[in-house]
UniProtKB/TrEMBL annotation:
Residues 22-122 form the Methyltransferase type domain. It comes from Streptomyces cellulosae. This is Class I SAM-dependent methyltransferase. Its EC number is 2.1.1.222, 2.1.1.64. The keyword S-adenosyl-L-methionine applies. InterPro entries: Methyltransf_11, SAM-dependent_MTases_sf. It comes from the Bacteria. GO terms for molecular function: 2-polyprenyl-6-hydroxyphenol methylase activity; 3-demethylubiquinol 3-O-methyltransferase activity. Pfam families: Methyltransf_11. The keyword Transferase applies. One of its GO terms (biological process) is methylation.
Length: 233
């Protein structure tokens, strides 16, 4: 996903430009910190105190220049208008958040308002068109059959959450003024890997295969996650 995001950034903005980045629901700050290291000015918005503590701890070990380029704000992603003015950011990330939001449209509209003209909105969502894949490949036939007709599922944390369908999100992005520019699949072949599984020796080959599949039909359509990139018109 990081490679996909970098591809979109390089293709949209001049090389060397320091971008204003907002990471909504930044978690422990993996992407936010990576982009700060790349020279961008990054703001992370997160409401989970444990995640904020983890992000601050990771940031504390960075050189001063990187620490100065990243700020962390405690808050809900649905309240971006409280913290920031419209058009304040060149790139807005919202990765792994929508599945926890029952009504995502207001959140997405708020994110689009944060974008400057030509800005990039990056979403990572659970693929509602492929919910039967994980149980089916695991031999859970009853679970696979039930998954065809729903966008609700139970995640690996044991939480009941929701998925999004590509066609619905495409329509939503068009409606909020940030139409879909590109989309990718994420975790095409590796979704059934056990949590905490040891990394293979040929990790770079695995990543290359996943990256190729994530941009190639029909493979990307059955990925566990979808990475959607919209552009503010």
């Amino acid at each position: 996903m990081a490679r996909q995001l970098d591809e979109q950034i390089v293709g949209r903005f001049p090389v060397g430009r320091r971008l204003r980045v907002l990471d909504v629901g930044m978690g422990q700050g993996t992407q936010a910190l990576r982009l700060a290291r790349a020279g961008h000015q990054v703001t992370g918005l997160e409401q989970d105190a444990r995640m904020i503590a983890a992000a601050r701890e990771a940031l504390s070990g960075e050189p001063e220049g990187i620490r100065e380029r990243m700020r962390i704000i405690e808050g809900d992603g649905r309240d971006t208008g409280v913290h920031f003015l419209p058009g304040s950011f060149d790139v807005v990330l919202c990765h792994g958040v929508l599945m926890y939001v029952e009504e995502p449209d207001p959140l997405l509209a708020g994110l689009a308002r944060m974008l400057a003209q030509g800005g990039l909105l990056s979403l990572l969502v659970r693929n509602g068109d492929a919910l039967a894949m994980r149980p089916g490949l695991s031999g859970d036939w009853a679970g696979a059959r039930a998954a065809f007709d729903t966008t609700a599922y139970r995640n690996r944390l044991g939480l009941d959450v929701r998925a999004d369908r590509l066609h619905a999100l495409t329509a939503t992005l068009a409606g909020i003024g940030a139409p879909l520019h590109a989309w990718y699949g994420v975790r095409v072949f590796t979704d059934t890997a056990a949590d905490g599984a040891e990394l293979p020796a040929d990790l770079e080959t695995l990543l290359a295969v996943e990256e190729r599949a994530g941009r190639t039909d029909p493979y990307r359509g059955v990925a566990a996650l979808l990475h959607l990139c919209g552009v503010r018109g």
